[in-house]
Amino acid sequence: MPRSTTPDDDRWAHGEAPADEEPDLYAHHHYIFKRLRRACPPPSPRRLRIITGALCASMILCGWNDGSVGPLIPSLQRYYNINYLKMSILFIMVFIGSLISGLTNVWLTDRIGFGLVTPLAALSTAIAYLIAGTGAPYPVFLLGYIFNGFGMGIQDAQVNNLVTRLPNADTKMSIVQACFSLGGTVSPFISTAFAQHVKAAYRYFFVAMGVAIITAAVMLWAFEGKTEEQLTALLPKDADVRREKKERKEREKQEAEGKVGEAGEAEGKAEVKEEPLGRVHSIVPNEAAPLPPADAEVLYAPDSSGTKMLRIFSTPSVYALIFWAFLYVGVEVSISGWLTSFLINERGATAAAGYAVTGFWGGMSVGRIVLIPVTKKIGYQFSIYLYAAIALALELTIWFTHSLVGNGVCYAFVGFFLGPIYPNALMVVSQVLDDDLRGGVMGIMGSLGGAGAAAIPFMTGGIADKHGIWTIQPIAVAMITAFTVIWMFVPRKRITSRYTPKRRVIKNK
């Protein structure tokens, strides 16, 4: 049934805010294109479904990338005549690209917006696949994978952040992350077929390039080049009002408990000088920023990209989150990347062992959907500990049993229980961090996760080259234990950084 029009619809259509909105909230941004600074109406239910589908497509591409490399490693080693250690340099290149994405994500988003950054990231991966598909010399092949790490890091950060702002975010997060696993489930079928039947197995990367280009086109169409605020109708005023209400409640609670002295009360009643929403240095330590009068409506001057990063890194708990992401994503990709080589060399499998990677990613995909009601019942925090403990037990089973079929089944269940952990962690992030910071934090988590996806498989390959491929099992056990312990340092309640944006009183009630 079509939505009835309102007097404000014509204003939205011309890029103007409705009468009850503040125009300067939309005018002051760092975006380089004027159209990104326009107010937009909330997306229709149909458009919201299209946006969610495009987010799923992005995650399918990311999973496609991670799931396809493992079955190709033996073929690539033969083609380039290299050992495990030299093959592992591939993951270092991914790390460099991920690091660049983490350092530039906030800046790029503040300049060209979500709707352009994310499709460009998909095209960056297409460049990597184009270079790899030509069978270029190994150094050139490695350099191309920097584009791969960059593109994957940006997409992971942007998509996860947007999902947390959509209706029914917890369910959508599990579905989107299940699509990541779906990509990792499908791609090994194709890459394994190339490894088995095509002499130049690297030609597979042309297939992956086609997937990346299609994904970029879908995202350009779905997002319409809009910013995150334009897509979700979560305009700056919305976040500011919620934040101010929270601070006001805290002040009222302090007053009720008699913890606010005469000086603090006088300071709270003082008139706050009006300031323009200009490009100002907006970092003010909490203790130097008195709360405004209760009868004042307050807005915040938008932070610069540098200020956002400083606020992020002034929050101690952020370090626990990014180190956790480093280990979790690292062990996930390490298992996926090396399990084919493990089954071939330690369990006597053939090249068809690449299909075990499909079982691993398929388990992740199913687990992220099937375990949704379990997670909702026991909570995000406890579910992370429970699923990690079960995955740890299964890894120990693989280590100490020597059945090819049994190991393959256990790998599928490792994926089943590891899968829901990451989306659950992202929902915790959305609950404990300020709205304007979580996008940057998820970006850093994505880039450090990409770094872990590079460093831990590289370390695993180096150890395997010296001591044997069997060592991937004790490494996986150690990494799962480590990220479970680190999660204990992630807060359970909402936290804020040491710094707050500069306030401006615009109206007294």
UniProtKB/TrEMBL annotation:
GO molecular-function terms, A-Z: transmembrane transporter activity
Chief subcellular location: membrane
Protein name: Major facilitator superfamily (MFS) profile domain-containing protein
Keywords carried by this UniProt record: Membrane, Transmembrane, Transmembrane helix, Transport
InterPro entries: MFS (IPR011701), MFS_dom (IPR020846), MFS_trans_sf (IPR036259), MFS_Transporter (IPR051788)
Species the sequence originates in: Cutaneotrichosporon spelunceum
Domain spans labelled Major facilitator superfamily (MFS) profile: 51-494
GO annotations of cellular component type: endomembrane system; membrane
Region (Disordered): 243-271
Locations listed in the record: Endomembrane system
The family this protein is said to belong to: Belongs to the major facilitator superfamily.
Chain ranges passing through the membrane: 87-107, 175-195, 201-223, 318-340, 352-372, 384-405, 411-429, 441-464, 470-490
Pfam families: MFS_1 (PF07690)
Gene3D superfamilies for this protein: MFS general substrate transporter like domains (1.20.1250.20)
Membrane topology: Multi-pass membrane protein
